[in-house]
Amino acid sequence: MPTTQPTRALARFEVPAPLRADVRLLGELLGTVLKEYGGLALLDDVERLRELTIAAHHDDPVRAEEAAEASERLVSDWDVERAENVARAFTCYFHLTNLAEEYHRVRALRDYDTADAPVRDSVAAAVAEVTAQYGEDQALTLLSGLEFRPVLTAHPTEARRRAVASAIRRISMLLADRDDPRLGAGERAEIRRRMLEEIDLLWRTSQIRTTKPGPLDEVRTAMTVFDDTLFQVLPQVYRQLDDRIAGEQAGTQPPKVPAFVRLGSWIGGDRDGNPFVTAAFTQKAMAIQADHVLRALERVCERVGRALTADAETTPPDPGVRRLLADARAAYPDLSEDVASRSPGEPHRQVLLLAARKLSATRQRNADFAYGNAGELLADLRTVQSSLAAAGARRLAYGELQHLIWQVETFGFHLAELEVRQHSKVHARALAELLTGGELSPETEEVLAVFRVIAQIQQRFGPDACRRYIVSFTQSSQDLAAVYELADRALDGRPISLDVVPLFETEDDLRHSVGILDEAIQQEPVRRRLEETERRYEVMLGYSDSAKDAGPLSATLALYDAQAAIAGWADRHSIRLTLFHGRGGALGRGGGPANRAVLAQAPGSVSGRFKLTEQGEVIFARYGDPTIARRHIEQVAAATLLASTPTVEKRIAGAAERFAGLARTMDDAARTAYHRLVRSEGFADWFARVTPVEELGQLPIGSRPARRGLAISSLEDLRAIPWVFAWTQARVNLTGWFGVGSGLEAVGDLDALREAYAQWPLFAVTLDNVEMSLAKTDARIARRYLELGNRPDLAAQVLEEHARTSHWVLAVAGHERLLEHRRVLGRAVDLRNPYVDALSYLQLRAFRALRTERLSEGDAERLRRLVLLTVNGIAAGLQNTG
Questions:
Q1: What is the mean pLDDT of residues 347-374?
Q2: How far apart are CA 818 and CA 821, in angstroms?
């Protein structure tokens, strides 16, 4: 079975003309910048390496290997300064290519959204499908309970500096401006000049951070997604769906679409393994969030209020509006008189302008005039809406004012629900100290301080602002009870709303989850919370550590079994379950298309609610552009709706039962192959030699340390993110596919496997993700990294399993080449791989010297810098980190 990918020439031919023109333009401008900076010699060196790496992908293996060896000789001949400049050139090229591809995706999505029928994979399409099967009432019932909860995390998988990301955004905006057909020649020339200026700045900006970001830096970075995208996009999502449902009555009746998105955040709250996240930082993180959302709501309230000029003669206020104005005159006579003088005879406008002033007072902590909570603002807005509707101004009632109401419902005064996470062992140590008595350690004092801060946040912003407390490595019900006891001791019995969420991460923990949950719901604090929340309960599943523990295929099957078991447990106890999926961006950490993953979940595990972590580079890839963000939210919400229908649940359950024997066979063989490798004597040391995992620990891309201990003596010392990141950098991508080939081969029946691929959603999604991971693997380059470890036995295991997995995945999928059925992604991978190779050869050059030569500290430092620079470039080229 051939495993080669299509020729690069064919891939280039398939690139849409507008995208090809954009990439060509940006490449030419970068070439101009390189010549201006380093002369023709620098550009020539870049071009020579580019041509050799392309030749190394020749169909003739002899010619390909000759070109690969020539590439290595070329980079070894350069001094470190020239190697750095060439690495910077390829890194900048990837940044420019990525922004061109992103802009073309936006262009394509806009072209796609032109039909009268709902866009495929949209929530409107899902509602239409459910309506056709079960009727409108059932569709609207499902919609009324829909919840999508993306949780932003600060896990260090965004390798770009903020300055680099800002430069990229400015170039992207210029590219979009250039697409305007109304431009004249002079305007186009000016845009080209500005693009050259920005690309020159991108080139001259260091790709490597000089200092690690702190927790508050990470909070502020995440706020750009809210400011630039989510605050505006979410009401647009609700509006588009509501318009589809309402038809000709759109904008003239109360909305049928609830505000179904709730944003969460671990940034400033996740202290598991991060000593820099303290109670004080958690409090500051919430203050930053609140400032952003209150400013945003104040601006919108002011804008909508100023536009609402309907006068009392055409649109008489109802008693509710008159009462609000009378109360304001009594409490704030000067302010009320000022607003009334500026808006005479416009009572609805006056209420909104007063609301804007009260939002300003809320932000500035002016207790005399501030809103007590977001509910008070919502009450005012709904009073205005009701009055407008009663006066016949229905379009005014359910137009822009409704957008503002949706924004308040979605974000409140806290913007995102700040969630706290801590390791179960930290709680156990703290509780042991408290029970022993005596002076408390700083660690225990900090644990107690967190609960006091949670209570303070709740007092100011309400319980929803910060009430979830996630317990990492939950291994017993006592791990959950400890949190309630610590909170009680910290607050001396004072009230606090606390939902303690178990996080099951390892395969063993997943297997024992139901027993732990059975004990947990017998605890008095849990029983009380179940009564208070209409029996809502949340359970988190960890994808990263389970995959590191058991391998990608066995972890996927274990997670499915755990979901099914926990869903059954919830049903038996009449619990409204929310499963929280701790997914990463890379395939080895549960990444891949989120909407397809939702549709493959175990029956009963969705029930209209889907919650997941959004990490690192994924945050900006999914939410950085408004059009792309809208599409992603639509796809996940639509999948959540459909996954909750009897038809989908029955299909998934039937497939899982039918192919259970096949799953067991694959599981056993895949697990055995994976453990044979990772449990080999000396594996951890070998891993550290053949990948840049040690160097990644020096890369200042996040506030959290890369490992739990001082050195990598076993995989347990290493966090899942650098485990995945390191294999990606070495072009092995092992975490996304290792063991899968052995599992498929153990079944051996190609017809049975193809039947499973066609009928079992979980298996199809898994195999498609494995195929994507294989496409981003390069065995020729990977072999060169693996040779650095001087363990031919381990290298052989990796390369043999890669060949086996490639063969069987292609055979089961019925493909002749990887990503044959995903032309856009396949084309991008084909075109990128040679350029990524250039950075890999530069990284290997530095690796060999660092691992095999006696170097002065100065020479070693320069080579480490070259490694870090190539890390950024390879991450940009593969569009994956951890």
A1: 94
A2: 8
Check residue 713 and report its DSSP letter.
S
Reported as half-sphere exposure (CB side, CA atoms, 13 A), residue 296 has a value of 27
- pLDDT tens digits for range 659-686: 999 999 999 999 999 999 999 999 999 9
- Tell me, yes or no, whether 588 lies in a domain: yes
Q: Cite the active site residues.
A: 155, 548
Distance of CA 165 to the CA centre of its chain: 16
pLDDT for res 661 = 96
Indicate the SS3 state at residue 273: coil
**What is the four-CA torsion angle of 356, 358, 361, 365, rounded to 10 degrees?**
-130
Residue 216 CA neighbour count, 13 Å, CB half: 11
In which residue are the tokens 């066979």 written? 665
pLDDT average, residue stretch 293-320: 97
3-state secondary structure of 552: helix
Question: Is the per-residue pLDDT at 376 higher than 80?
Answer: yes
The tokens of 672 are what? 């055995």
39-74 pLDDT, tens digit each:
999 999 999 999 999 999 888 889 989 999 999 999
> Which pLDDT value is given to residue 133?
94
Band (pLDDT 50/70/90 cuts) for residue 621 is: confident
Number of Cβ atoms within 10 Å of the Cβ of 180:
10
What is residue 715's predicted lDDT score, i.e. its pLDDT?
65
Task: Report yes or no: 196 and 590 within 8 Å, Cβ to Cβ.
Answer: no
- Helix count and strand count (H, E) for the chain: 40, 9
Coil, strand or helix: which one is 264?
strand
Element spanning 11, H or E = helix 8-14
Winning range, highest mean pLDDT, from 296-300, 617-621, 702-706: 296-300
Q: Say if residues 72 and 844 touch (Cβ distance below 8 Å).
A: yes
Q: Is pLDDT of 4 > 60? A: no
With a pLDDT cut of 90, the percent of the chain lying above it is 72
Distance between CA 151 and CA 419 in Å, rounded? 9
Report the chain's mean pLDDT, rounded to a whole number: 90
CB 548 within 8 A of CB 582: no
| Residue, of 17 and 409, whose pLDDT is higher | 409
Query: Dihedral sign, CA of 370, 373, 376, 381?
Result: positive
Domain-located, residue 501: yes
Quick one: which of 147, 156, 148 has its CA closest to 544? 156
Amino acid symbol at 227: D
- 549 within some domain: yes
**CA 35 to each of CA 97, 193, 427, 613: distance values in angstroms, whole numbers, following the listed order:** 19, 16, 59, 43
CA 45, CA 85: separation in Å to the nearest integer? Answer: 10
In the prediction, which pLDDT does 120 show? 83
Report DSSP state, residue 227: I
List the domain range (segments joined by +) for residue 455: 418-627
Q: In 10 A of CB 287, how many CB atoms?
A: 15
46, part of any domain: no
Count of domains in the chain? 1
Determine contact, residues 812/754, Cβ cutoff 8 Å: yes
DSSP string, 394-451: HHHHTTHHHHHHHHHHHHTTTSSEE-EEEEHHHHHHHHHHHHH-SSPPHHHHHHHHHH
Cα(553)–Cα(547) distance, rounded to whole angstroms? 8
Question: Do 333 and 421 form a contact (C-beta atoms < 8 A)?
Answer: no
Bridge-partner residues for 539, per DSSP?
A: 579
Rounded to whole angstroms, the Cα distance separating 483 from 476 reads: 12
Tell me the CATH number at 533: 3.20.20
Mean per-residue pLDDT for 532-561?
91
Q: Rounded to whole angstroms, how far apart are CA atoms 513 and 165?
A: 41
pTM of the model: 0.90
Q: What does the alpha-carbon distance between residue 529 and residue 460 come to, in Å, rounded to a whole number?
A: 21
| CA 571 remoteness from chain centre | 30
CA 180 to chain centre: 31
With CA atoms as reference, report the closest residue to 624 among 264, 98, 22, 90. Answer: 98
